[in-house]
User: Fold Peptidylprolyl isomerase from Micromonospora rubida.
Amino acid sequence: MGGSGVAAVAAPGGAVPSGAVPAAAAPPRTTPGPCAYTETPDEPAARPVPLPPDPRRTPGHGTVRVTLRTNQGPIGLTLDREQAACTVQSFLHLVQHRFYDRTSCHRLTAYPTLSVLQCGDPSGTGEGGPGYRYADELPTDLPPAPTDPTGVRKVYARGVLAMANAGPDTNGSQFFLVYANSALRPNYTIFGEVDAAGLATLDRIAAGGIAPTAEDPAPVDGAPALPVEIYRAARRL
Assistant:
């Protein structure tokens, strides 16, 4: 963590000496650039990784290709810096540090309005992340979902690559791949798309269904019945 200070010295038995004030915990470290990646001490990294680089001029143009080599087939991704510069920068940082290698995609959904495969947690529980968070870069031009007459939900189209989160500005390492048009509030950063070969892989995974449990023999949300392991995530030149 960032910052420095002198900790109060404990007296015998662990008590703080009379009149001493316990030192305040140092604030979480935040990178100085525009992306402001911030440590999350209460949610330590599922796999050790440093904070991403955060240059004053974050690359905001062009695309970058990444391949997820999985046991079910390749999933090619095209990351769009213009859509979400800080998100792409973080994702590439995690790829470079092999954060996603030998991880599983822990969640598959098959709701009529939500069809995604979620990945990016080395713990495989859906609770793990990289030990830092950063702000949303939300889409503003998505069409309204035809299934939602209020217009609140938007279409996250087949092939979209987006960040999962636990609320506003809590992006970390988990992401989802949309295999059929889904209706969501526009609260999830879109930062790229899946290629044709990747969609074929996703379709095969989705066709396998969701693993049944003792509580639910026919779930629509849970671990994919065809286990999905990312052997290697690598940038393509």
Summary: The helical segments are 85-96, 196-207. The chain has two helices and 14 strands.
